[in-house]
Design a protein that fits this description.
With 78 residues, the protein is an all-alpha fold. It has one domain. It is 87% helix and 0% strand. It has three helices and no strands. Helix 2 runs antiparallel to helix 3. The N and C termini lie far apart (48 Å).
């Protein structure tokens, strides 16, 4: 039981951390702070990917895998 509670708490921490990091990514975009905004979005999306995997939510996992791949390719081409 403790492992389930700890995993849930860990997932909740990842979820909120990723959300806050993505909000900073939006702010960085608004202030024209490229490529910092992209790196913040990458970290936030990676966090949400982990949450999707832990929740076994394939829709959430798929969208974050695709978004991460697009951003990594975009950064590599710039």
């Amino acid at each position: 039981m403790n492992a389930i509670v700890r995993r849930s708490t860990d997932t909740n921490t990842i979820k909120w951390s990723a959300s806050i990091i993505q909000v900073f990514g939006y702010a960085a975009t608004a202030f024209g702070l490229a490529p910092l905004n992209m790196y913040l979005f990458l970290v936030g999306m990676l966090g949400w990917l982990i949450v999707g995997l832990r929740w076994n939510d394939m829709a959430m996992t798929m969208i974050h895998v695709i978004a991460l791949a697009a951003m990594v390719i975009g950064l590599a081409l710039t």
